[in-house]
Design goal:
Blueprint: E1 32-34, E2 41-49, E3 52-58, E4 60-64, E5 67-69, E6 75-82, E7 85-92, E8 102-104, E9 109-113, E10 120-123, E11 139-146, E12 149-157, E13 159-165, E14 171-178, E15 185-192, E16 197-199, E17 220-226, E18 232-238, H1 246-251, E19 259-265, E20 271-275, E21 288-292, E22 298-303, E23 308-313, E24 318-324, E25 332-336, E26 340-345, E27 348-353, E28 358-364, E29 371-374, E30 380-385, E31 388-393, E32 399-404, E33 408-414
Antiparallel strand pairs: 1-4, 2-3, 2-33, 3-4, 5-6, 6-7, 7-8, 9-10, 10-11, 11-12, 13-14, 14-15, 15-16, 17-18, 18-19, 19-20, 21-22, 22-23, 23-24, 25-26, 26-27, 27-28, 29-30, 30-31, 31-32
Amino acid sequence: MMANSPISRRTLLTVLAGSGAAALVGCDPGRRRTAVPATPVPDALLVEVDGGLGLLRGTDRQTMPHAVATADGLAVFATAPEGADTALWRVDTATGRTSTRVTLPGRWVPQTVSTSGTTVALTSTAVHVTTGRPDGRAVTPVLIADETGVRHRLELRGNFVPETFTDDLAGLFVLEWLPATAPDRYRVRVVDLATSTPGPLSTRNKAPVPPGAEEEMRGDGRQAVLAPDRRVLYTLYTHQPGHQHTRDLVSGRPGNVHAFVHTLNLAERWAYCIDLPHPFGEAPAGGHAMAITPDGSRLFVADVTSGTVAEISTEDLSVRRTVAVAGGAGGAHAVADRDRLVIAAGPTVRTLDLAGLGVVADRSVGEAVTGLVFSPDGQRLYVGQSGAVSWHDAASGTELGRVAVPGLVGVHGLAGRA
């Protein structure tokens, strides 16, 4: 999820199934078909289904089997095989218009798109940053492209997975898996696109990381949230027993943290980890979720298994407080607006008042939730469920409408508005 909802780094790609009696659009993501009959969706949404990315806009349905969206949902880069090569184009989600296709030599799949929405990184195999470890390989080919075609072609020595771009588009943040041919851990690095050279990040005080002090992680990268100003990416990592941050490695202090939020400044290229207290990271990674307020000042992490919610100040990068709520089971989802934090686990949707983090509503939607997102005005709450997206009055919880989406994995977030 994005904007009001977290960007799931596991699920930046997916496909949309049509509504009602309509069939899925075929393998060509550029084709569109209007479902008849179809229920109009009040706000344009990006949704996730097995295999790709999709757009619901009114009664229109557009599918993109190989695609990646910008964090704000304003654009999508999509690809399709074109003989031995790959066709690439950009979709404006507010209008559905597509750019002219460009041909990329060889076969490529999109991995991540810049926060500016202009540039995309592609790899020869689809392995996203939190879908699990990649297969062993000694060299990683990466293509950097935009609407005009190829900008850079990289042959990185080692096993790399693109994460996101630097703010100035001069660098690409990557996960480097170690050892390359039999990976069991990874570290975050930045590749200089002019020289194709990967190197370490800086510390929070902008000092270079000393040799041997780069953090290496073995846990699960659960979810990422981009700050509203698009300059900072927050990523939740769980299951990190014995992990040592760069600051621990530099100081020689022991480290043993089970969960933390990796803070990556896309403009200044520094990283800092915010440790989460017990019991975060003890329960399954899927039971954790994050959400950020629209002004970007507060970041919330929920562990639905234990019923613990932490509030993080993004100004000083520290945990401000934790509260206990009723625990639950199943996958966790969260979304925040100016006044509320909504957390879902299984079929339960719980609303907390941000002033005191007290529970003000506790409702069941009948089926396991697979995604949450607020409408732009905060009046509606969209809920992903089994094979459908429903929308509810955000205050009362009353269901206002529903559209069938066969094979739905989740609600990715809001799309652009015309």
